[in-house]
Amino acid sequence: MTVNTEGATEFTAMVDGVGVDVEGKVIMISNLDVGNHILTVTTVGDANHDSVTKTARITVNKAKSQILSDDSNATECQKINLTVRVAGVNLVDEGSVAFFDGEHKIGQADVNKGIAKLPYVPSKAGEYSFLVVYSGTSRYLPSNSTIQLTVF
Asked: Cα separation of 10 and 23, whole Å?
């Protein structure tokens, strides 16, 4: 949206009726919830210029999520943590991750500071492949990935 600020000494801005910070001619907006919002900008008139108000719609979509993990090694019958990092624009700090061995769900872990850990004890040596599924939340889209585990 463009608002002609010629002659205006200042302007105000609101999102959904709530005032937001304005620095110079920059409107500072952060932490909007997913959904549609209305931005209203009003110039402050003077003796030679009328006040002008303009509105625009802002749409905030869910952020993409991504599951990251390094291939892991383990020793049979010893407990390890299957660990994945869930990231969006920043580290994700909400939702949960389910771990699957084939069609069998072996567990679920909450995401805390971008990390989900599931304790696991491999029963025998070999190559394992786990499907990891992030549930998504009101702010993040779901995602999935496969992690590999070599057990000696």
From this structure: 10
d(CA 150, CA 71): 8
Q: How far is CA 144 from CA 99, 131, 133, 134, in A?
A: 10, 7, 4, 6
Model pLDDT for residues 102-152, shown as the tens digit of each residue? 899 999 999 999 999 999 999 999 999 999 999 999 889 999 999 999 999
SS3 111: coil
Tens of pLDDT along 17-43? 999 988 877 888 888 889 999 999 998
Q: What is the pLDDT of residues 88-98, one digit of tens each?
A: 877 788 999 99
Query: What is the Cα 43 distance to its own chain's centre?
Result: 34
Number of H helices and E strands in the chain, helices first, is: 0, 14
The DSSP-derived string for 29-92 is ---PPSEEEEEEEEE--BTTB---EEEEEEEEPPBP-EEE---EEE-TTS-EEEEEEEESSSB-
Q: Is 9 left (phi over 0), alpha (psi -120 to 50) or beta?
A: alpha
89, 86, 53: which is closest to 69 by C-alpha? 86
